[in-house]
Amino acid sequence: MSNLSRWLSSRKLSSLEETLTEHEIDLDILFDLTDEDMRELGLSLGARKRLRAALEAGAGETITETELARTGGGAERRHLTTMFVDLVGSTELSAGLDPEDMRDVITSYQNTVAGVVTRYEGQVAKYMGDGVLCYFGWPRAHEDDAKRAARAGLEILEAMQVIKAPDGRDLTVRIGAATGLVVVGDLIGEGAAQEEAVVGDTPNLAARLQTLADPGRIIIADNTRQLLGADFEIVELGSFNIKGVEHPVTAWQVDAERSLTTRFEEGTPDPTLPLIGRDHELGLIIERWRRACDGEGQVVVLTGEAGIGKSRLTRAAIEEIAQGEHYRISYHCSPYHSDSSFYPVIQQLTHAMGLSETDSPTDKFEKLKTNLRHADPRIIAELLQIDLEAELGPLGLTPQQTRNQIMSETSEEVRALAREKPVLMVVEDAHWIDPSTLAMLEACLDRITGERAMLLITGRPSFVHGFGGHPIVSKLTLNRLGSEQTAAVLSRIARGKSLPPELVAEIIARTDGVPLFIEEMTKTILESGDLRETETAYELTGPLSRVTIPATLHDSLMARIDRLQPIKEVAQMAACIGRNFDRAALEKIAGVSEQTLDDALVQLEQSELVFRRGAPPDASYVFKHALVRDVAYESLLKRRRQDIHARLVEVFEAENAAPELTAYHASQAGLTEKAAEFWSKAGSQAQARPAYDEAANHLKTALIEVGGLLDEPVWRERELELLVQIAQVYIAKEGYASAEASEAFGKAMQRIAATDSAELRVAIYYGAWIAPYIGNRLYQAYETANRLVEAMSGEAELIPRLISRRMRAATLISMGRSPEALEDLKVAYDLYQQAEITDFATKFAQDPGVQIWCYMHLAMWMCGDREGALVVADRSMELARHLNHANTFCYAGLHDITLALWEGDISRARKVTEEMRQVAIEHDMSLWKLYAWIFEAVTSCMADEADGPARVDAALKDYRATGCWLWAPLFLAEQAKAQLRAGDAAGAEAAVKRGLAEAEVCGERWAIPELHRILGDISRSQGDSAAAAKAYEQAAADARAQGAVLLLARAEAAIEGL
C-alpha cells in the first residue's frame, strides 16, 4: 500500500487515488493543493469539499504524521489470530429463497459479524460469500488478541440466534480460529477487489477448523488455546489430520467465557509460584491492613508496568489477610468495558448477591433486600438495571440524582460491612476503570477514613486518579527484580534443577527483571526441546540458539509498538540499530527531517518505551525492554530489515565505527564478505587489547560467515588464517593444551593444502607441535619441529624459518640438548633481525623476539654463560614490558622465573610471579594464573615454608588436569630439596624418583642431572656415602652428556664435598 493510498483510505477518500496518482500527486505535495489545483485535476465539487476538509483536518497533524507516512514499509511480520466464520446451510437456504431475500440474509449476517469484530477492535479482512475472514492483531495489536477473537466468536454465535431467514428458519454459523506467524499488509487486487493479503498457514488452518465445528460452535487450534489461559470453558476434541498441515492438529471447542470475579480465579500464568523479591512491598500492604483493622481506613495504590507482578503481590496480600476474619469485595476492570458505567461494581454485586439470568426482576429484588446490609435495594436495583417500574413505579430521580445515590449507597454499604468485620476492597487493573466507578472510589475515600476498611488498587503507570494527595493514600510502585531474584524465579520454575549458566545469563539479559517475562520465556525454553532434563539439572542439547519471544507475550509487546502510530517506523528502524541507539545514526537512516525525528524521539520517550541519555542532538537512547525491541524488530519483513542494516553498514563504515558494530549489521544485511572482513577485524582488535572472550566470539562469527564463501580459493585460505588466529586466542586464554585450540589447529591441518603461504603453514604446524610440547611428549614434539625445520629450510620467507628454528630450540632445551638449541636460536635471532614483523599478537600469540630471548637465556645458562643469560633475561623482560602485550609479558615471565629457579634466586622469582599473577587476573588468562600458582608453591619450597611441598602437590594436580606437564620434573626437584632440608628424606626421595620417571617417559631430560644430584644429597644425609657417590657421578655424567656446564659444576662440587 502506498503512503498516499494509506492516507486516503484512512479518510474514506480512496476513490480519488486514481486521479491523484495519474497526476503524480503524492503526500509530499498533497497538502499544498489549492482549490484551483483541484479543479484542474477535474475533481467534482463534492470531492473537492471532502478533500479540502480532510486536508484542513490534517493541517493539525504534526509533520511527523505526514512525513513519517512516507517511510512506511507496508507489509509486516505479525503474530496474528485469524477467525473464519461460515454461515451454515447457505446453499440450501439460497435454493429456497428469492435472490433478493438471500441478499438481505447475507447482508444481515455480514453486518452482524462485522459489528461484533469491530467492537473487539478486530478487522474484517475479506467477505467470501457466506464466509467472513477476520484478523485480530492487525493493523493494530492488543495484548489479548486471542481472547478478543474468542469473545467475538461467542458474541457472534449469540447475536445470530435472533436473526431469522425470511421463511422463519434459524440462521447459525460455525467458527474456526488459529494463531501464528504471518506476513500481512501487502495489497492485492484493484478497486473493490483490493484487499490486504495474509501469507502463512494460520488463515488456512482457521478455515479448516471451522469445517470440524458443529453449527453454533467455535473450534480453535492449540496455539490459540494456549493464549486463552483459564478465561474460557474449553473442551479438547482430539487430534485431526488437516489438509495442508504436516502434523496432526489438536482442536479445542470454546463453550463459554468463565464469569468469575478476579483474575486469580480466572487463572494467572502460574499462581503456584511463590512470591519472590517482594517482601518489602507485601510487608507495607499488610502493615496498612493492620492499621485499617484498628479503624484507620487505608488506601494502597499499587502501580507497575504490565507483567511486573501486581496481581501476584495482590494474591499474596489476599492470602495473608485471609488468615483473619474479614469481608472482601473485588472489582475487576475490563479493557472491553472502560466506557460502561459502573461495570466492575455491577459484576461484583451480581456475583455477591447471587443473581442469575433466569431470576425474575422480583426474585432479584428479593435477593437484594436479603443480602444488602445498609444500601437501598431500589437504588442498587437501578444500578443493576433490574426493571421494577411495573411493580414499584418509577424511581422519580433524574439521571444525575440516580448516579449520586448509587455512589452514596455503595459507600454506605461498605461502612455497614466494616462495622461487622474489616473490609478489604480490591480494584484490579484500574487503568481500565470507567469514569463512574472511579468517581465512586474517590467519593468513598472520606467515608472510609475512620472505618475498618482498606482499598487496594492495582494499575499500570497510565492509571490517572485524583486521590493521590489524600492522607490515607499510600502509593507503591513495583520495580523490576534483580539478577539474584530473577535466578531464584528460574530455579522455582525449573523445580530446583539447575539451568545452564549461559542460558540463565541470556534470560536475565532479555527479561529485564519483569516476572511475567521471566516465567513465560523460561517455560518456552523448557518446552522447546533445546534442553535435556536429568535428575538434577537441565542441559543444553547443542549450542544455545536465539531465544524466541514466547507467544504468550508477543501480542502484549506488539500492542505497545502499535500504539506508537504514526512513529512506529522510527521505533522499528531504531530497533535495527539495537537495544541501544543514538540519534546521529538514526538520523542517517530515517529519511526524515531533523524536526520530524526529534518529534518522534520525544514521543517514543514519552511513551516510556525508550529512555534517553544525554541531551539532543548528542543523545543516545535505550529500549526499556529488550523484548519490546525484539518485537519491533521482528515485525519488519526480513527484506526490509536487510535494507536498513545495509544502510547502517554504510553509515558505520564511513564513520570508522567499532568493527564489531559494522560486522553485526553486515551479517544482518546478508553482506557475507563484508561481514567476514569486519568480524575478523573486530577479533584482531580484541585480541590485541587483549580481550580474549570477545576475540574468540568475533572470530567464531567470522568463521561462520566465511563458511558460506568456501567455493573461492581466497576464502579457503582466509579460513585457515582465522582457524590459526582463534587457536592463538584460546592458547592465550586457556593455555597451550586448550581443547578449542587443538580443534582449530586440527581443522587447519586437515585443510592445509588450501594455502601456499609458508608463514601460514608454519603456524598450522605450530599447532601440531604445541600440544605435545606443553604436554611433555617431547619426542613427538621434536619430530614435528624437526620436520618443519627441514621443510622450511629452502623457503625465501624469513619468518617461517625463524619460527621453525625457535620451535625446535625450545624442544631441544627441555630434552637436555641446549648446545644444539643455541645453534638454532642464533639462526632464529639473525632471521628476526632481518625480518619485518607486524601484528605479532594475532599471528604468533607472543612477540617472536621475546620468544627467542626466553629460550636463549635458558640455553646460555645451561651451557655455562651465566652472566650472559641474566643479561638476555633482563632484555627479554624489558621488551615484554615495553610491548604492553599481556600474553607476551606472561610468556617472558614464565621463562624468567624458570631461570630464577635454576639460579636459586627466590626474590627474583617471587617478584616476577606476582607481576604475572596480576596481569593474568586482569586479562582472565587461566594458564598464566595456573603458572603463577605453581611458582608461588615452588618458591614457598625454596623459602622452606612448611606447607610448600603440599602446595606443590596441589598445584601440579591442577596442572596435570589441564593437559600440561612441561617442566614438572624441575618443580619436583625444588619440592624434593625443600623436603630434604625439612628432614623428610623419604618424601624427598619419592619426589626425585617421580621426577626421574616422568623425565624418562616424557623425554624432558634437562632436569635429570639435578634430580640425580639431589638423590645423592638424600643418600649422604642418611650416611650412605657409596650411594651418594654413585648418584653424584651419574649427575655429572648426565650433565656432561647434555653440555650443561653449570649443572656439571654442581655435581662435581658435590663429589668433591663428599
What does this structure look like?
With 1058 residues, the chain is an alpha/beta fold. Among the domains are: 58 residues, DNA polymerase, domain 1 (Orthogonal Bundle); 182 residues, Alpha-Beta Plaits (2-Layer Sandwich); 200 residues, Rossmann fold; 58 residues; 107 residues, Winged helix-like DNA-binding domain superfamily/Winged helix DNA-binding domain (Arc Repressor Mutant, subunit A, Orthogonal Bundle), CATH 1.10.10.10; 90 residues, Tetratricopeptide repeat domain (Serine Threonine Protein Phosphatase 5, Tetratricopeptide repeat), CATH 1.25.40. The chain is built from 50 helices and 18 strands. Strands 1, 2, 3, 4, 5, 6, 7 and 8 form an eight-stranded mixed β-sheet that branches. A hairpin with a 6-residue loop joins strand 4 and strand 5. Helix 19 packs across helix 20. The longest helix is centred in the middle third of the chain and has 22 residues. The radius of gyration is 40 Å and the shape is elongated.
Question: Summary?
Answer:
Residues 81-210 form the Guanylate cyclase domain. By secondary structure, the protein is of the alpha/beta class.
Count of strand segments: 18
| Regions with little confidence, pLDDT below 50 for 5+ residues | 59-73, 266-271
Give the termini distance in whole angstroms.
102 Å
Overall pLDDT metric: 88
GO cellular component, one term: cytoplasm
Domain SAM: 1-44
GO molecular function, one term: adenylate cyclase activity
Pfam families: AAA_16, Guanylate_cyc, SAM_1
